[in-house]
Amino acid sequence: MKPTISFSPKAFSKMFRVLAEHAFLFTMFLVVFAGLLSGIVLFLALSQAKEVDSSDSLAVTFRQDAFEEIIKEWAKRDVLLRGTGLPLSRDIFSSQ
Hints:
Layout: H1 9-21, H2 23-48, H3 64-82
């Protein structure tokens, strides 16, 4: 005789009762299952990650012209800030 799977409300109530009676074991099963699943995902993510070669990485160079433009912009903003007449907030990062 083949066992049949029924989706009646009575079957669901029986399933919930069994889970409630063995709540600790069910919780441990879920923890182990989550650990295995996350381990598999991590393994797949790391195995598919491409190694970056140092020659492929972008070279960082200092651009003097961009640095000077930034300093000029900061100076303009400082003049505008000081020209408002509002008191400047104290610097919380200095030791004064």
